[in-house]
Design goal:
The protein is mainly alpha-helical. The chain has helices spanning 13-27, 41-58, 62-92, 98-123, 128-132, 151-156, 166-179, 190-217. Helix content is 66%, strand content 0%.
Length: 218
């Protein structure tokens, strides 16, 4: 085990910005897709949970920090899924105009990326705290390119203590929503494969909605 000094700690602010962005995207959706009123209530809930999450991390209460992180991600995930179901219903009932459909689909597609990037970041190799407590990153649900490098090459490149950070999982989630599959990061764990299948399905549904609407307009 290595000590978790300030140089080894992964900055948590990218993950915090991601959940705030999801709350903001939800608040910007058309009223017909909202199940929680007023529209800014999800942002308030995110902020209320985020504050003790930050405090628990700062004070070293890692178990509480992990539980609050799961709760926070669960809230924004539930909001996104309900909004997606309502969007599907609105399209099939022909009660949403093309402009609102385009904006809503784009917002949900972006939310899908951020939500699953957060889950990958929370779950992979035990989460950010567990990853930070081990030298380097040799085992996890995803096989990042740095994990396949020869030890001598990693040392020469200054990557001998490399470990994935939030942006790596964001890149993975973006590729999954764009290509409907992993690109440069093979998936090793069954839970990760399941999550990626769900993410790809959501992305495919959103893009299919846009394509179907475009055909109807033409």
């Amino acid at each position: 085990m290595r000590s978790l000094d300030s140089n080894n700690r992964e900055p948590r602010w990218p993950a915090g910005i991601a959940v705030i962005a999801i709350g903001g995207l939800y608040a910007a959706l058309p009223s017909a897709l909202l199940v929680v009123r007023p529209r800014w209530l999800i942002l308030v809930i995110v902020a209320v949970i985020l504050v003790p999450t930050i405090i628990s991390h700062r004070t070293g209460n890692h178990r509480l920090n992990q539980i609050l992180g799961y709760l926070l991600n669960g809230v924004v995930t539930a909001a996104m899924m309900v909004a997606l179901v309502r969007l599907l219903s609105a399209v099939t009932a022909h009660i949403i105009d093309p402009q609102s459909l385009l904006f809503s689909a784009a917002a949900l597609w972006l939310s899908n990326i951020l939500v699953f990037a957060s889950w990958y970041w929370h779950f992979d190799a035990g989460g950010p705290q567990e990853r930070a407590s081990t030298p380097g990153h040799a085992d996890g649900a995803f096989l990042f390119p740095q994990m396949t490098m020869d030890p001598a090459a990693k040392l020469a490149a200054g990557e001998h203590n490399w470990e994935p950070r939030f942006v790596d999982y964001l890149f993975l989630a973006f590729n999954t929503s764009t290509a409907f599959s992993p690109t440069d990061v093979p998936v090793l764990s069954r839970w990760a494969k399941g999550l990626m299948m769900i993410q790809s399905l959501i992305s495919l549904l959103v893009i299919a909605l846009l394509a179907g609407r475009a055909v109807n307009i033409l």
